[in-house]
Write a structure and sequence with these properties.
- The protein has 5 helices and 7 strands, in the order αβββαβαβαββα.
- By secondary structure, it is of the alpha/beta class.
- The protein starts with a helix and ends with a helix.
């Protein structure tokens, strides 16, 4: 059953998508989000290495499972030279912080409070992984972390 807050989040996300349009060929230029510590993160500063962005919400059951799995794999992924960020879409900071009270996080949580980054990458639902090559260009998006994520990123990077 959808609550009023979930309906508002869903409707605001849809309106943002409709207002700003979709882009499947987005690059990461000029994308600056705050993390849970209030520190600004410029996604375009990650150029030079592949990036995995994981878009999610606190109310999404499937997102919770993916967050747990990603948290377990994050250290290994970063050892492989791949940057990992989770991106919460359209939720207030206090709610996201409360959600992570019981987690020992190994990744940075970015807040896409206005949904603009989600729009830029054409996110239609959560959970969604976005894979960026070392130049910051979108190469793929998936609803689950594929077992061959490294091959996917490196194959595209070397083209």
């Amino acid at each position: 059953m959808l609550t009023s807050a979930r309906i508002q989040i869903l409707l605001s996300t849809i309106l943002i998508f409709l207002f700003l349009g979709f882009s499947k060929t987005a690059a990461s230029d000029d994308i600056i989000l705050r993390d849970l510590n209030g520190i600004s993160v410029d996604i375009s500063n990650q150029k030079g290495k592949p990036v995995i962005l994981f878009f999610w919400t606190t109310w999404c059951h499937f997102c919770r499972n993916e967050i747990k799995a990603l948290n377990q794999k994050c250290s290994q992924i970063e050892k492989e030279g791949i940057a990992v960020f989770t991106v919460n879409v359209n939720e207030p900071e206090y709610k996201v912080k409360r959600f992570f009270n019981d987690y020992a996080l190994k990744f940075r949580v970015l807040l896409d409070s206005d949904g603009l980054l989600a729009v830029k990458y054409g996110i239609l639902g959560v959970p969604t992984y976005v894979f960026l090559d070392k130049t910051g260009r979108l190469i793929s998006s998936e609803n689950r972390l594929p077992a061959d994520y490294k091959t996917l990123l490196l194959k595209k990077v070397n083209k």
